[in-house]
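Review form for a predicted model. The reviewer records the input and the model, then writes brief findings.
Reviewer: anonymous (R2)
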Amino acid sequence: MTARRLVTLRLLAAMLPLVMGAPALPVYAAETGAASQPQPAPPPEAVAGALNGGPGVAALTAYFESWSAPQDVVARAAMMIEAIKARSRTESPEKLLAALDRINGAATNALDISRVLRLSVEPDFVPQRAVTALDFGFREMPVAPGFESVVQGDPRLQGSLASLRQPGEQGLLADGIAGIRRIAIPVSGPGPYRIVLMSRDMGNAELTRAAFGGMVRVNGAPYFVRGADPSQWLNMATLSNRGPALVGASFDGRSSLVMGRPDANQLAQGAGQQGAALIINGVPVEGQLLIELIGQGNTFLTALLIEIADQPSNFVLSPEALAQLVPFDLRQALEAELQAFLAAALEQFNPAAGGPQPPGPPVRLNELNTPVFPSDTSASPG
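Model under review:
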């Protein structure tokens, strides 16, 4: 690990309590600036994917996305860069720079993944800490307390919309709207905001897997959805007004979420209405959060919560779920660390700076590589 990275992460650890209002916990290894555990060496097929592209890019992507804590991504990028540097005497400058570009894309995207969480909503839940709380569904269905009813025809929604409900059931997750592709929400503050999209398993496997799309963009910033199948939903998130009193948990100021004991969350899993949640961050542009759901198949949303990201949340998360979330400030710091590693590697590969190779044409790293999704023709108003 470079001294530069160690200093940056320690500074971040020192700053976060001032911003968030509580001491940082070691789930992100902030005290040492280290990855969560010793990282596996880059698989040969991942190195080949970085150098050659093509089918090997899948192995490169999997290597970065299998992190346990977000610092792992930067640690793995450093290891991958070292593996590429070992080829500097045998590969062309163009190939080495293209490899750095692919590493940049895969690592940055890995910090932008969001895993679907299994959700429990307590029967008496009221969104006391939300700046926006929307209950999607039918006009004639009861609206969850503290939520605003949103039905087909609402100007904030775009897509080929269809309302669906679970027969004989009431509550926040009992009904929703399929086919939503864009949601435009006005906000008054600068953000960042915590955005929580909610859905449920309606018994239609295709609809459930596509509930949040393959990617969610917030004012252009991408989040890549992972674990969409119910068998892969990560335990566990609970919407509760009791917070620490419910689970005997401590407030985690870094992510502004209440972290509960695993056993308490397992108990909560059977106590409320069951569904799925996707938690992401967003910064408004001109007073608006534009949320886009991109991918194949029909999306399906039952509710939307928006909270101020540096304020406490109504969500109670298990430690496993909390460890998968990347707070906004930490994400920015880790992306800066990644870019510093890549810039140093570029300098080493540059012959004018003493690099090993003869000059080649200039190659500029993309600021952000994102996967190409199939054309989304359902995003226009329905």
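Findings: The CA atoms of residues 214 and 295 lie 5 Å apart.
Further findings: Residues 3-111+328-364 form one domain.
Recommendation: see findings above.
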